[in-house]
Design a protein that fits this description.
The protein contains 4 helices and no strands. The chain has helices at 4-23, 30-34, 44-70, 78-84.
């Protein structure tokens, strides 16, 4: 079973990775980038790309944590975990 401390390390690295990508485009967080998806305008397509990427990363993150917790996947280093996440593709 994976400890809460290790899950928290994955979560912090996961969030930092997503937020860092958003910051490269001038957003403060991944949420501020993704919210643009809901509004027609010049940033909507970019917001949709961020939102879809965030959801894909979250789905994979939950899967990895579940597999490590179940013992069907060996624990990963933070670097290995981040490398598993989908790549962001912006318009």
């Amino acid at each position: 079973m994976i400890s809460d401390r290790i899950i928290d390390k994955y979560r912090r690295a996961h969030d930092a990775h997503l937020n860092a990508a958003a910051k490269t485009r001038g957003y403060s967080t991944i949420q501020s980038a993704a919210i643009r998806a809901g509004y027609a305008g010049p940033f909507q397509a970019e917001g949709q790309a961020f939102a879809q990427w965030m959801d894909a990363c979250n789905a994979l993150g939950y899967q990895v944590v579940a597999e490590v917790s179940a013992g069907t996947r060996p624990p990963l280093s933070i670097e290995e975990y981040i490398l598993l996440l989908p790549v962001l593709v912006l318009p």
